């Protein structure tokens, strides 16, 4: 039987989405957490006029916190429920990683879609280069998903511990945070996409490098 | 044809020595029963054969047609069933088997129906696994282990939670694999299961 | 390490320390009020600060290399080396941070000035902390070596981003006051460079020496526990 990488990866993704739709553990709590964080942030800033720089930072802080709260579920849920054994026996490791990566990307996508409008309501920006904002968010999400998926696998294998994921993931995510905020700041200042080239280059190279490294390293995490 | 050769297999967990110099050679048609009291390493032995654990020292060679199994082949030619195996509770039996067939690269569709009928779960395939009784769940797990029609079937206490009909299914699976020229390894403390074997080893 | 080498290291380090305070020429910085230059004695911290920062990264690199080796084939000695170099890297990182903060405090009155390089060393410290937290949460030695090794490699890949790429981007984010590092690299004359590089050399020697002690301790510990 010929193994199609696309098919096996999609199988993992569809399985996760289906389980998610029924158990609703990841999406719900991540969304709720991000809304709560955003509310807390805007409440504490409420009334004060804040400039675009701080707004950009706040957006990414909320995004980062939500990511740290929710992106470890993909692997930790498998270990907690015990299904990781069946997965190891039946699925090719690369497909497992890619499937979980795509699932995390999906989570971040949903997050972005909910967060941006909410942000516009609570901490509105007068005008912005929305295209640049989208680019920054998409590229940043890919980078976020790439490194957090591998770290989630490490944490799941090590034995579940709430704060370990955050402790391990944050330092590795700093480049995404810095570049993401930079691009978003320029977007809020309505600068053209070309002005954010350094940030975009950083985000693209980070995402590429992290994805490649994760694919190479995943086998070592997955197999005993 | 599949062959298994275990030479000087030793496995420790930290300071604790669990398997000490185990040697056995298995040929097509063999049905090996692994006996030993609790903690003697029966489950560890089976896990090593399944590729889930690595030996501390010694070698385990599983060959098909003279060539050692690679990762992709292992997923199809080796079936594993144990108490700690868990399948997805939020998916139905059919969805579980379809998913596992997909990631293993097995044909989907009709073959699934045959697998479900073989373990006597027809009519229950659209029930969420989490809603099944432990006995039926064990049958679903058996379906997971046998769906690829493995050449090496590894069973660890397979009859736990099974009624008479369920035990018959285990026996049927064992006989089917052996008659096809496969090998069965069954780790157990259950005297009823001892009868399923043609050979035995006892772990100290 | 053989006694002769140890003595050599001791003498060299002593010479380096003395040279940093005496032989290295005085550094000046512009006085915008008078239009002239003032002596800048606190500049001498650079001879201790910069090598610490270098060693911090070098130690991390060494740790990553041993992590790669451990992933290729497990042996407790390889894992010991990965861990020992990470511990030393952590120490150097803290030294670099403290010396940097002291310098900034004496010169500018503020302990932290968001210099991108300063922040990268801080992030590096966080990475080390994560590495050790991960290690302490796994009991099985092989698993510990494997998972910590993977994290070490992944985290090290972030370092080039932190050191080279992020500063370019961050300059638009944090306009910083006069950056001590940038100034000194440009305006150091040869004599100063000699002292600086000998500092790096001495720190390297210290690193190698403590590494060898550390790994020997771990080997003895293992021998004792299996008896």
SSE pattern of chain A: HHHHHHHHH
Mean pLDDT of chain A: 89
For the terminal residues of chain A, how far apart are their CA atoms?
26 Å
Beta-strand share of residues of chain A: under 5%
Largest sheet of chain A: none
Q: How many domains comprise the coordinates of chain A?
A: 1
What is the count of helical runs of chain A? 9
From the structure provided, what is the oligomeric state, counting identical versus distinct chains?
heterotrimer
Number of domains of chain C: 1
- Uncertain residue segments of chain C: 173-184
In the sheet with the most strands of chain C, the strands line up as 1-2
Report the principal-axis shape of chain A: globular
Number of helices of chain C: 7
CATH architecture of chain C: Up-down Bundle
Name the beta content range of chain C.
under 5%
CATH C-level name of chain C: Mainly Alpha
Q: Can you tell me the residue ranges of chain A where pLDDT is under 50 for at least 5 consecutive residues?
A: none
Cα gyration radius of chain A (Å): 18 Å
**Mean pLDDT score of chain C, rounded?**
84
Helical coverage of chain C, percent range: over 70%
Q: Topology, please?
A:
The complex is a heterotrimer of chains A (224), B (204) and C (227).
Chain A: H1 5-23, H2 26-45, H3 52-70, H4 73-81, H5 84-90, H6 93-122, H7 130-158, H8 162-188, H9 197-222
Helix pairs in contact in A: 1-6, 2-3, 2-6, 3-6, 3-8, 4-7, 6-7, 6-9, 7-8, 7-9, 8-9
Chain B: E1 2-13, E2 16-26, E3 31-35, H1 42-49, E4 57-64, E5 67-68, H2 71-77, E6 78-81, H3 93-104, H4 110-118, H5 134-146, E7 152-156, H6 164-179, E8 183-187, H7 191-194, E9 199-202
Parallel strand pairs in B: 3-8, 3-9, 6-7, 7-8
Antiparallel strand pairs in B: 1-2, 1-4, 4-5
Chain C: H1 3-21, E1 28-30, E2 37-39, H2 46-72, H3 76-108, H4 116-136, H5 141-170, H6 180-187, H7 190-226
Antiparallel strand pairs in C: 1-2
């Amino acid at each position: 039987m010929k193994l199609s990488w696309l098919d096996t990866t999609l199988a993992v993704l569809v399985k996760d989405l289906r389980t998610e739709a029924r158990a609703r553990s990841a999406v719900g709590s991540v969304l709720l957490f991000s809304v709560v964080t955003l509310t807390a942030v805007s409440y504490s800033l409420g009334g004060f006029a804040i400039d675009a720089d701080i707004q950009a930072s706040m957006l990414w802080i909320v995004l980062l916190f939500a990511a740290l709260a929710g992106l470890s579920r993909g692997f930790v849920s498998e270990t907690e429920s015990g299904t990781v054994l069946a997965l190891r026996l039946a699925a090719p490791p690369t497909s497992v990683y890619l499937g979980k990566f795509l699932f995390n990307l999906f989570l971040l996508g949903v997050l972005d879609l909910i967060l941006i409008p909410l942000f516009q309501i609570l901490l509105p920006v007068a005008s912005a280069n929305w295209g640049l904002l989208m680019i920054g968010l998409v590229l940043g999400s890919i980078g976020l998903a790439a490194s957090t998926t591998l770290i989630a696998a490490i944490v799941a294998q090590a034995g579940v511990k709430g704060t370990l994921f955050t402790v391990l993931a944050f330092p590795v995510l700093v480049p995404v945070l810095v570049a993401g905020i930079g691009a978003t700041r320029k977007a809020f200042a309505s600068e053209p996409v070309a002005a954010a080239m350094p940030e975009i280059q950083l985000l693209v190279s980070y995402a590429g490098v992290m994805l490649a490294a994760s694919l190479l390293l995943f086998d070592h995490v997955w197999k005993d | 044809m599949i062959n298994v050769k275990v030479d000087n297999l030793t496995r420790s967990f930290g300071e604790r020595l669990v398997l000490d110099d185990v040697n056995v050679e298995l040929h097509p048609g063999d049905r090996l029963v692994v006996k030993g009291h609790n903690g003697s390493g029966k489950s560890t032995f089976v896990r090593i054969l399944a590729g889930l654990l690595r030996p501390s020292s010694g070698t385990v060679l599983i060959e098909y047609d003279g060539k050692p199994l690679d990762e992709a082949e292992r997923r199809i030619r080796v079936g594993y069933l144990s108490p700690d195996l868990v399948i997805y509770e939020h998916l139905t039996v059919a969805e579980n088997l379809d998913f596992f067939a997909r990631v293993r690269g097995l044909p989907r569709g009709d073959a699934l129906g045959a697998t479900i009928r073989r373990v006597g779960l027809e009519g229950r395939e659209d029930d969420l696994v989490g809603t099944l009784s432990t006995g039926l769940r064990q049958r679903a797990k058996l379906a997971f282990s046998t769906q690829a029609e493995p050449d090496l079937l590894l069973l660890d206490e397979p009859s736990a939670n099974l009624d008479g009909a369920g035990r018959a299914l285990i026996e049927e699976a064992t006989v089917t694999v052996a008659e096809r020229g496969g090998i069965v390894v069954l780790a157990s403390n259950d005297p009823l299961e001892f009868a399923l074997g043609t050979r035995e080893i006892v772990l100290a | 390490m053989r006694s002769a080498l140890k003595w050599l290291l001791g003498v060299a380090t002593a010479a380096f320390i003395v040279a940093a305070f005496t032989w290295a020429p005085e550094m000046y910085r512009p006085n915008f009020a008078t239009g002239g230059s003032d002596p800048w004695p606190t500049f001498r911290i650079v001879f201790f600060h910069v090598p610490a920062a270098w060693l911090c990264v070098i130690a991390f690199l060494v740790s990553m290399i041993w992590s790669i080796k451990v992933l290729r084939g497990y042996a407790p000695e390889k894992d010991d080396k990965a861990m020992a170099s990470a511990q030393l890297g952590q120490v150097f990182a803290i030294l670099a941070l403290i010396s940097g903060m002291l310098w900034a405090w004496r010169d500018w009155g503020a302990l932290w000035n968001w210099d991108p390089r300063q922040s990268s060393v801080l992030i590096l410290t966080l990475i080390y902390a994560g590495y050790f937290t991960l290690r302490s949460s796994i009991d099985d030695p092989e698993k510990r070596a494997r998972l910590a090794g993977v994290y070490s490699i992944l985290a090290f890949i972030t370092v080039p981003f932190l050191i080279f790429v992020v500063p370019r981007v961050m300059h638009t984010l944090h306009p910083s006051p006069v950056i001590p590092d940038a100034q000194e690299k440009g305006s150091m004359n040869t004599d100063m460079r000699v002292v600086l590089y000998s500092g790096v050399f001495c720190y390297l020697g210290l690193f190698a020496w403590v590494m060898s002690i550390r790994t020997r301790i771990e080997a003895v510990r293992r021998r004792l526990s299996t008896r």
